[in-house]
Amino acid sequence: MAQILKGAPVVESINKRMTDDVEMLKNVGLAPTLGILRVGERPEDLSYEKGATKKAEAVGVAVRHVVLPADVTQEEFDKALRDLNEDKSVHGILMFRPLPDHLDSERARQMLDPAKDIDGCTDGSLAGVFTNSEVGFPPCTAQAALEVLDYYKVPLRGKRAAVVGRSLVVGRCAAMMLMHRDATVSICHTKTEDVASVTSLCDVVITAAGQLHYYGKEYAKESQTIIDVGINWDEAKGGISGDVDFETVEPVVKALTPVPGGVGAVTSCVLISHVVEAAKRAMAAERE
Fold first, then answer.
1. 263-287 and 140-151 helices, crossing angle to 10°
2. Whose CA is closest to 96, among 74, 66, 126?
């Protein structure tokens, strides 16, 4: 039987760390603040905004909402984003995407200050991941996968690891982050021939294929730890399931994350932790 790597204790640990940091920052007169920039009233944006606000306020992070009408002009949008970039009291910015078609999403992505890019979407943040430097922040899902591995003390140095999926949001960034921990990393994707021949040799696998029950027991080995990032609609279950065929893989491997209840629970927590880290960096910069 595999060890089930649940996300809840990881979230609790990160929240404790954040609460301590927020208290420290407030004691020196700095209130970590998240700026949320939203255009229109899309239900999925409203739901995510509500959840992010609740998580931020639970650890003492203030939230400032900037809401623009769906027909906002490019000039008005640019000004709102520029104002948040320049506002020193705002430490992290969550910019909801996709933007309406009449707005230039790529321009907005490049305008966002990497120092406040808590969602890891700018080229500056992505460069920071690849150079292992404190420029911006990694995409939240990729970092959440590493947070789970760290919390459960999964060895990475010298180990073979594979990432299934090559998106910038998860795959390529997760691979770089594993490499920075001295793992030997393979990236598998839709054009990889015989993925199982790669993953079955690995000690750690992060699956981000986005295919329901794609990862069967033929991909696994007994000593393997699997971080399942997949979120797929499972018609048979009437809910979400991961990339891993849990029923067949769980008896084989050493450890794996469940879906739901695994990485997803950690991802939104990581987003707020980036706000706190941005505030700490801002404080350090002020003291230089």
1. 100
2. 66
Half-sphere exposure in the Cβ direction for 229 (13 Å, CA): 27
**Diameter of the chain by CA atoms?**
57
The phi, psi pair for 207, rounded to 5°, reads -100, 125
Both tokens assigned to 229: 């990032």
- The candidate with the shortest Cα–Cα distance to 61, out of 95, 13, 21, is 21
54/50 Cα distance (integer angstroms): 6
What letters, b where the CB count within 10 A reaches 16 and e where it falls short, cover 45-67? beebbeebbebbeebbbbbeebb
Paired tokens of 178:
């594993």
- Compute the distance between CA of residue 168 and CA of residue 166 in angstroms, rounded to an integer: 7
Q: Which residue has the tokens 């469940």?
A: 258
Does this model's pTM top 0.85? My answer is yes
pLDDT digits (tens, 9 = 90+) for 94-136: 999 999 999 999 999 999 999 999 999 999 999 999 999 989 9
How many CB atoms are located within 10 Å of the residue 153 CB? 6
CA 11 – CA 143 distance, rounded (Å): 13
* Domains in the chain: ranges and CATH: 30-113 (3.40.50.10860), 140-265 (3.40.50.720)
